Amino acid sequence: MRKLLHAILLGLLGAGIVHIIVLLLVPEFSERDAWSRLAMASDLYKMTRLDAEAGGAPVVKSVDPLFYAAACRFDLTDGMVRVKAPGNVPFWSISVYDRSGYNVYSFNDHGTTAGLLDSVVLTPAQMIEVRKDLPEELQGAIFVEAPIDEGIFVIRAFVPDDSWKPTVSRFLDQGSCELQDF
Questions:
Q1: Distance separating alpha carbons of residues 96 and 151, to the nearest angstrom
Q2: pLDDT higher than 90, residue 24
Q3: Where are the domains positioned within the chain?
Q4: What span, in angstroms and rounded, lies between the C-alpha atoms of 92 and 159?
Q5: Residue 65 to residue 72: CA distance in whole angstroms
Q6: Burial 38-68 (b: 16+ CB within 10 A, else e)
Q7: Mean pLDDT score of the chain
Q8: In angstroms, rounded to a whole number, what is the distance separating the alpha carbons of residues 12 and 125?
Q9: Residue 71: burial class (beta carbons within 10 Å; 0-12, 13-18, 19+)
Q10: How far is C-alpha 114 from the geometric centre of its chain's CA atoms?
Q11: Taking a C-beta distance cutoff of 8 angstroms, is the pair 175, 118 a contact?
């Protein structure tokens, strides 16, 4: 009887370990990750609204209805990427993710001059080249040095009440994600 109980407990422990490993590996093998969904919705270097306010079904369902979001896929092997959005909103935040969805860098409007969104994502090698002769138009930009090739840039903007919806929507709709070659 002891041997049977020992075998059952050992089997349950092994099954639990295998179950946990499978759950942790699901994102690595998933074909419906954020990169794939954005690839179906738009091309590289194109700002794409993630919320339903843009019309149609949302690309990614937001857990917070008080935030609107937009994303842009990029490939740093083509060159550095500059993300800008005109105007001011109550609050915005930026996250840079690698292709697998791991957060590489985040910041918000409180870490910028005058709260304006102007950021450049580049590799360490590209950063060395830019530092040699920084272009005038990049003087106020926030540089995100990311050791990745492909990634996603996500902008989230706070909508405190209905009166802010048009302003926040315009902020995201007029945002740009452009390949820069210096």
A1: 7
A2: no
A3: 1-30, 34-179
A4: 10
A5: 20
A6: beebbeebebbbbbebbeeeebeeeeeeebb
A7: 85
A8: 50
A9: buried
A10: 23
A11: no
Q: Strand 48-49's sheet: what is its strand order?
A: 48-49, 67-75, 150-158, 92-98, 103-108
Structural tokens at position 92: 């915005």
Provide the token pair at 135.
């272009």
pTM across the whole model: 0.75
Q: Inform me whether the pLDDT recorded for 22 exceeds 90.
A: no
**C-alpha torsion angle, residues 24, 25, 26, 29 (rounded to 10):** 160
Q: Any idea which fold 34-179 has? A: Immunoglobulin-like (2.60.40)
Q: What is the pLDDT of residues 130-163, one digit of tens each?
A: 888 888 888 888 899 999 999 999 999 999 999 9
Q: What is the C-alpha separation between 31 and 79, in angstroms, rounded?
A: 27
> Which residues lie across from 151 on neighbouring strands?
74, 98
Confidence of residue 26 (pLDDT cuts 50, 70, 90): confident
What pLDDT does 88 receive? 86
